[in-house]
Design goal:
The radius of gyration is 30 Å and the shape is globular. The strands form eight sheets. An eight-stranded parallel beta sheet has the order 12-13-14-17-18-19-22-23. The protein has a seven-stranded antiparallel beta sheet with strand order 11-24-25-26-31-28-29, with helices on one face. It is 36% helix and 23% strand. By secondary structure, the protein is an alpha/beta fold. It contains 23 helices and 31 strands.
Length: 807
């Protein structure tokens, strides 16, 4: 083979021996897949403990070392960084892929392809010069980039990040173009019009190493290619790649790779010659034997392509328990001052009638809009506006769930684009002022509404998420919570007091330590308040990212994991309330208006049924998220009702759940069955489709409402077959109520009108009439005590099925 010998873009190796390595880094992206044994990967101060079937990506230039168990069998995939960066036209490519922290089904898809690639590697004797090998490598890259890539668009807004991407691009482009020249930090700083000191600090902060280390790493990366894949003399390689001398090259090379360039070249040539003529050595035969056994035991048959998924399930109607009504008890409205508006009150009345809520959750009772000052000049507090809110709620038969914390009002387009009213970093109140206002407030509430009424309410104290990294803030929060709890219980023993609005996308150990810290205190909450938005948060080179989680089971996994943490913290007896949850924080995401959102809500209710005491959806009405750009019928708000009072598919999901009977029979992935305990049955079902990589590659406020179909992973219909056994023989009436793209969906009806922006009052009335479920009626005769139901469902369709014996 000539001097331009092909270099693989993805290099695969299988090892059965990984003694503890020295700390090192490389420009390639490294994927580790443990098949047998265990592996510890040390990434700076972090240690990742990998078990069999775990997958981990070590990003480019990330310092790390590894140590494996004696029985280790591991596959290593080295992915050329420049290939990936060229595809994404970015020199800041990061993957968050760590199955030890995440239970996403995406890992199963990745494992399946990795096993196919390993099987091909084994069957061809490691031959990489085939389209089969190349195609499987690209499948791995496709899954990684589709579901585990952290994009520049995922970077959260920060004070010093405005010019970060541009500066990184300038640095990378300059070094790539000039690494083979005698460049210096001083020369680069002059090119960028920056001081030497600033650029030195910038390198250390954002590259994790100094300029000289990074430049040497780039030079070595290119030198190794020439060393292994060409016959160029070592002296020429050294000078061609920017090293001042062969001695400097040899010293840097040995420090990084543990041997000299000539020794590595000699070893590589000997290895190549052996591969062409030799029979497998003992270690190679052992690896092949173990790999073959592993692949046989873990062989995954390729799934046949299906366009209609068929599910068949059977339940006895004689076995039922009380239905746990946890999904629609509480609904978020927003700020306390919002409820003072008549249009918001109108929507609350409509939502109460439609979905049967019990509690309205709102925050910020102590603001200028509410006329409540923490430190009034005359020492008197004005609770009249709070009274107006509470009077209204009680007239409607609703209870208040008051978030006592001070939250900023934010309108979120995507993680990089926010409209914030006020300061995001809300400070904790002074403890004495906090005590004073709480005493006055509770005394007033009990006097005005009576202890027995106030006993049925809830209060909660939020822990500002921007202060979680500060240990002193933990103590401050817990002290403020103690004041709230003791003051409330002084006036109302049965009023529930909870905290702290914890989010599952913060560091696991930090949350666990917080629970342990709380367990040691004398006062514990009546409930834990938990916030679930499917985002993965993390830090890379001191930049904060919020990447949309690609796990379709994210809510279920996070609830399960948080309950385990609470148990480990010694507080497992305290109930868990989800006080906010949604697919997205974006209030300009067209998915919020679609059929998908209704199916998504039902899926997650079914997934965690019985696992939490309450699920307070965010939010009730799009009126809460109006702004200068909200002049059209729909604008992607997170409300379940449009600003014009039209129920979205998301609203019908809750309305269908409200139709269920009082007793629970059973559920599956796509349905839940209830009964009145006699001869009537209510079934809610859905055909939710997972979001695909097109969705995750598009900013949330830039999703095309005209082409929502392209953002889903598949478009398979569902043929749901249910058998209800032990029913009375006789004739039954079956009613099907459906919301799908052809019936009842406000976004699809508006699409048929070509998204007309100027709608009259009569047009809005038309929407209110036609945005209703489609009704069809069938009759079934039962002879052998088994009622068989066939429920075909379209993509992202939701349905309620009511079965009654005919008299």
């Amino acid at each position: 083979m000539d001097n331009n010998r092909y270099k693989e873009k993805v290099r695969l190796a299988v090892y059965n021996d990984t003694k503890e390595s020295t700390e090192h880094f490389h420009q390639d992206i490294e994927l580790l897949y443990v098949m047998e044994g265990t592996l510890d990967v040390f990434l700076g101060e972090q240690t990742v403990h990998m078990q069999p079937e775990d997958i981990l990506v070590v990003n480019a230039n990330k310092k790390h070392s590894v140590k494996g168990s004696d029985n280790i069998l591991i596959a290593q995939f080295m992915i050329e960084y420049h290939m990936v960066s060229d595809v994404f036209q970015s020199m800041n490519v990061i993957f968050w892929c760590d199955s030890t922290k995440d239970k996403s089904d995406r890992y199963d898809a990745l494992r399946e392809v990795l096993k196919k690639l390993l099987n091909h590697h084994l069957s061809t004797g490691g031959n990489t010069a085939s389209f089969g090998h190349i195609s499987l490598c690209y499948q791995v890259l496709d899954i990684l980039s589709g579901y585990f890539l952290v994009q520049t668009a995922d970077k959260e807004i920060g004070d010093e990040n405005d010019k970060f991407d541009e500066r990184i691009q300038q640095i990378n482009n300059y070094i790539r173009a000039n690494y083979n020249q005698p460049i210096s930090l001083k020369e680069l700083s002059e090119k960028l019009y920056l001081s030497n000191g600033y650029l030195s600090r910038f390198f250390k902060k954002n590259y994790g190493m100094n300029f000289a280390e990074y430049l040497t790493n780039i030079r070595l990366f290119h030198a190794v290619d020439e060393l292994l894949y060409t016959n160029t003399p070592i002296t020429m390689i050294a000078y061609d790649n920017g090293f001042a001398s062969v001695a400097v090259f040899n010293k840097a090379f040995k420090k990084t790779y543990g041997e000299t360039p000539s020794a590595l070249r000699k070893k590589s040539k000997e290895q190549t010659e052996k591969e062409e003529t030799r029979t497998p050595q003992e270690d190679d035969r052992e690896i092949q034997k173990r790999l073959e056994k592993y692949l046989i035991q873990n062989h995954a048959e390729p799934a046949e392509e299906q366009h209609v998924e068929k599910l068949r399930n059977q339940h006895s109607v004689q076995q039922y328990t009380e239905l746990k009504h946890c999904w629609g008890r509480t609904l978020n409205i927003g700020m306390a001052s919002d409820i003072l508006k008549s249009e918001i009150q109108e929507h609350i009345i409509l939502l109460k009638e439609t979905i049967g809520i019990e509690f309205i959750r709102f925050c910020n009772p102590f603001t200028k809009e509410m006329l409540i000052d923490f430190n009034p000049a005359d020492g008197k507090y004005n609770f009249t506006r709070l009274d107006s809110i509470l009077d209204f709620l009680l007239r409607q038969g609703l209870k208040p769930h008051i978030e006592m914390g001070q939250k900023p009002r934010m309108l979120t387009y995507n993680v990089q684009k926010l409209e914030v009213d006020g300061n995001r970093n809300v400070e904790f109140p002074d403890p004495d002022e906090w005590q004073s206002v709480l005493e006055a407030m509770l005394r007033h509430l009990v006097s005005r509404y009576g202890r027995s009424e106030v006993d049925t309410w809830r209060m909660e104290l939020w822990f500002n998420e921007n202060k979680w990294d500060d240990q002193d803030s933990h103590d401050t929060y817990l002290n403020l919570f103690d004041i709230l709890y003791t003051t409330v219980k002084k006036y109302s023993e049965n009023l529930e007091v909870g905290g702290c609005g914890i989010r599952a996308d913060y560091q696991e150990m930090l949350r666990l330590n917080f629970y342990k810290q709380w367990e040691k205190r004398a006062i514990h909450p009546d409930f834990f308040s938990f916030i679930v938005y499917p985002y993965d948060r993390g830090e890379e080179k001191q930049d904060h990212y919020a990447k949309r989680c690609t796990d379709n089971e994210c809510v279920k996994h996070r609830v399960t994991d948080e309950k385990k943490l609470i148990e480990q913290g010694g507080l497992g007896h305290i109930p868990l309330y989800i006080t906010e949850w949604n697919l997205t924080v974006s209030t300009r995401n067209p998915m919020n208006d679609s059929c998908f959102k209704g199916a998504y809500i039902l899926k997650n209710i079914f997934d965690i049924y019985g696992e939490v005491e309450d699920m307070a959806y965010w939010a009730g009405s799009d009126r809460t998220f109006e702004y200068y750009d909200s002049n059209e019928l729909l604008y992607g708000g997170t409300g379940i009702m449009t600003k014009d009072g039209i129920l979205k598919p998301a609203g019908f999901a809750f309305e269908f759940m409200n139709r269920l009977y009082s007793y629970y029979i059973g559920r599956g992935e796509n349905y839940l069955v209830s009964t009145d305990g006699h001869d009537s049955y209510g079934i809610v079902c859905h055909n939710q489709k997972p979001l695909g990589y097109h969705y995750y590659f598009t900013k949330e406020d830039e999703i095309e409402r005209e082409h929502l179909w392209k953002y889903f992973e598949n478009h398979d219909e569902l043929d749901l077959n249910l058998e209800l056994k032990d029913v009375e023989n006789g004739n039954y009436q079956v009613k099907f109520y459906r919301i799908n793209e052809q019936n009842g969906s406000v976004s699809n009806i508006w699409a048929d009108m070509e998204f007309e922006p100027e709608l009259s009052r009569n047009d809005i009335k038309y929407f209110r009439r036609v945005c209703e479920p489609k009704l069809t009626i069938q009759k079934h005769e039962v002879k052998n005590h088994i009622l068989k139901l066939s429920i075909p469902m379209q993509v992202n369709e939701i349905a309620f099925v009511r079965v009654r014996m005919m008299v």
